[in-house]
Design a protein that fits this description.
The structure is a single chain. The protein has 249 residues and is mostly beta strands. Helices cover 0% and strands 49% of the residues. The strands form 4 sheets. Strands 2, 4, 5, 6, 9, 10 and 11 form a 7-stranded mixed β-sheet that branches. Strands 12-21-19-14-15-16 form a 6-stranded mixed β-sheet, with no helix packed on it. A 4-stranded antiparallel β-sheet has the order 1-3-8-7, with no helix packed on it.
């Protein structure tokens, strides 16, 4: 995935236009998503477009202001967000859906490409920085660990759930999308080592045979499949209500 912008500066009330080019996969066979991350917050799915542009869905905070379009002939997907407010300051990601054809009930991707939006008030602006919390755990290579995502406001057992990670200095990487044990998708880099499970209130990531390349910040995510997203607060087993914990191997 290739973002065609890097840093964008806007004033409140203006419009934001972003472009993203896909490569290395059959672009016209996949739904595309836009996701953002405000400073200090977890990932937020804001909208998606079907593989053939026949349908779009948007999160409630941006309904009426966000338009997503695509050009399959050019492998391009676009975002236009109007009426910008301070709450729209974020790092924006374009994301390929994890499975082909229609958008599935999850907001995941193999790799996401980002662009930074800075909102300015007159001549004054503050840079938005992607930050992680202090929560971390160190595990020896070859060891095992379990992460717990405590969910509220919905029942995770009835929704697609996902794990996404971000290695130091790299983009976001989708690793597992999970509905039930026989309906799931796992990226090749963790197959046979990482598994997921869930119950009525939690989503788990079971990691074994950890390698140095597994060092990353891990996030959980869900998409209800409707016009809004529910959110999970991803936690470590020991420390709850901490988002963006990092695992070091």
């Amino acid at each position: 995935m290739e973002s065609l912008e890097t840093t964008v500066q806007k004033k409140p009330g203006e419009a934001l236009s972003l472009s993203c080019r896909g490569s290395g996969f059959n672009f016209g066979g996949y739904g595309m998503n836009w996701i953002r991350q405000q400073a200090g917050n977890s990932l937020e799915w804001i909208g998606a477009i079907w593989y053939d542009a026949s349908k779009t869905i948007y999160a409630k905070p941006v309904e009426g202001r966000l338009e997503i379009t695509r050009e399959n002939s050019r492998n391009m997907v676009y975002l236009k967000l109007t009426g910008l407010t301070a709450q729209d300051s974020a790092v924006y990601y374009c994301a390929r859906d994890h499975s082909g054809a229609n958008i599935s009930s999850s907001t995941n991707t193999m790799l996401l490409t980002s662009v930074l939006l800075l909102l300015m008030a007159g001549c004054v602006h503050s840079q938005v920085v992607l930050t992680q919390s202090e929560g971390s755990v160190t595990v020896a290579p070859g060891g095992s660990y379990k992460l717990t995502c405590a969910c509220s406001g919905f029942n995770p057992s009835g929704n697609w759930m996902s794990w996404v990670r971000q290695a130091p200095g790299k983009g976001l990487e989708w690793i597992i999308a999970y509905f039930i044990e026989r309906i799931k998708h796992t990226t090749q880099s963790v197959q046979g080592r990482f598994t997921a499970s869930k119950d009525s209130s939690n989503f788990y990531l079971h990691m074994s045979q950890l390698k140095p390349e597994d060092t990353a910040v891990y996030y959980c995510a869900t998409h209800s499949g409707g016009t809004h997203t529910d959110s999970c607060t991803r936690t470590r087993v020991e420390d709850k209500h901490r988002e963006g914990d990092s695992v070091r191997a």
